[in-house]
Design brief:
alpha+beta; two-stranded antiparallel sheet
Length: 444
């Protein structure tokens, strides 16, 4: 913590022309704000599924045997028993081959359909080998055949004879080309997926304790450090399962994922914690009370005086925290459990109570909370409207004892965390907001 003695020394050293006209207000506590500058480059892999049942001629059958079926249940190229890399040309040939009905071919159809998610598969990245470019994933990746869902066999319609019996126009039996396999006698069913690598680069400046009013982002970014080399903190590719977030960065992981997304394969991150402190002082020449700030007192220290006249904010604390709250709503509502739905409703009511506890709710808060609540698919339109009507409250008196009786301790603890974030988003926690938070803490 920055002591008043250290603060006085810094003002004398860094602002000597103002030092003699400043009296630090000892009655107002020096408050700490830990900003975190984050720069990250992440890569994510999604898997787009495809399947086909086709008639195969001798040439295509030879290629299928060479690339898939001759490998049995494993592939020495990947070490995987489930997924086999195949040339994209082969996939193109499969797509272009004559289609067959596929009836009876897809024995694992239910399993395959259960894997589909947002147009792709859930694949264990440790079970396949993706191509790399240096220490990052290559943009271009091979397709992978799902070995358990691939088969090559005689046509079930003609039993491999290439023809079937039919009656000619005179009503006499005759042999005609099998319409199912187009006279090839052989059919194949194939399932595959295509890895799609996407990249995202983000730069973030965030403070979990709330923002310092009117402190410019450019002022803070000047303290991000000269060497911003990225460090690998997460890697889940090619059998590697690395997760090594430094302890002081752990509180900011949600901040990173709010911007860069979750479920990443690679996260390369640079960060720097920038400690800042606010203090109150009197200008002896004008007798006015002002707010000042000390940035990075133990590093490349800087003093900012008269923050009221600085004219800009770092970021909108409320707006950015609502993003995390919205994601939290989604996490609670992932299941169809009645108990989770009840906890979700309690969470929303408590967060609205924090927003209105001091007697007013800003348009920005109201708009952000409204959008978040309307995005909750687990709640009916009527339930959403009932909750949204609470934003018109002038205080938190709508809360009842039931609002504090969570089924899940984890949901309660996460709700407390989000309440604390929202209450401090304006840099000051109102006593009425603190009372609500403490009541939930006492319950659990």
């Amino acid at each position: 913590m920055l002591t008043l003695g250290k603060l006085s020394e810094l003002i004398k050293e860094l602002e000597p022309t103002h030092y003699n006209s400043i009296i630090i207000d000892n009655a107002v506590a020096v408050k700490e704000f830990r900003y975190c500058y984050i720069r990250a480059a992440v890569q994510k892999v999604e898997f787009r599924s495809g399947s086909a049942a086709v008639a195969v001629d001798e040439g295509l059958e030879k290629q299928l045997n060479a690339e898939i079926f001759s490998l049995g249940n494993g592939d020495s190229r990947t070490g995987s028993v489930a997924y086999i890399p195949v040339d994209k040309v082969l996939v193109s040939q499969i797509k272009a081959a004559p289609k067959v009905s596929g009836k009876g071919f897809f024995s694992n159809a239910k399993k395959k359909l259960s894997e589909l998610k947002n147009g792709g598969r859930d694949i264990d990245l440790g079970s396949i080998r993706l191509l790399t470019d240096g220490d990052r994933l290559a943009k271009s990746q091979p397709d992978f055949a799902v070995r358990a869902e691939c088969s090559l066999s005689d046509c079930p319609n003609c039993k491999g004879t290439k023809t079937v019996s039919s009656l000619n126009k005179d009503g006499r039996p005759t042999k005609v080309e099998c319409p199912e396999c187009k006279g090839t006698g052989r059919v194949a069913s194939l399932s595959w997926f295509s890895p799609v690598v996407s990249e995202k680069k983000v730069s973030i400046l965030r403070c979990l304790e709330g923002e310092i009013e009117n402190l410019k982002a450019s002022t803070l970014e000047a303290h991000k450090g000269d060497d911003s080399t990225l460090t690998r903190m997460l890697a889940r590719i090619n059998g590697e399962d690395l997760r090594q977030y430094p302890a002081d960065f752990e509180p900011y992981i949600d901040v990173l994922h709010d911007k860069a997304g979750e479920g990443n394969a690679i996260e390369d991150v640079y960060y720097r914690i920038i400690p800042c402190y606010t203090f109150a002082y009197r200008n002896v020449l004008t007798s006015k009370i002002h707010t000042g700030a000390v940035i990075d007192p133990d590093g490349d220290a800087e003093i900012v005086l008269d923050l009221e006249s600085s004219g800009s904010k770092v970021v909108s604390g409320v707006k950015d925290r609502i993003k995390g709250i919205s994601r939290f709503f989604g996490n609670i509502g992932k299941t169809d459990s009645f108990k989770d739905k009840e906890d979700l409703r309690r969470t929303i009511r408590l967060l609205i109570a924090i927003a209105v506890a001091d007697g007013s709710v800003s348009d920005e808060e109201k708009q952000a909370l409204t959008l978040s609540i309307r995005d909750i698919n687990q709640l009916s339109s009527a339930e959403q409207e009932q909750l949204l009507s609470l934003l018109g409250s002038t205080d938190s008196s709508f809360l009842t004892d039931d609002d504090f009786k969570f089924h899940s301790r984890e949901n309660a603890e996460m709700t407390i965390k989000r309440m604390q974030e929202l209450s401090s988003s304006d840099g000051l926690v109102d006593v009425r907001e603190r009372d609500i938070i403490e009541r939930l803490k006492f319950t659990y």
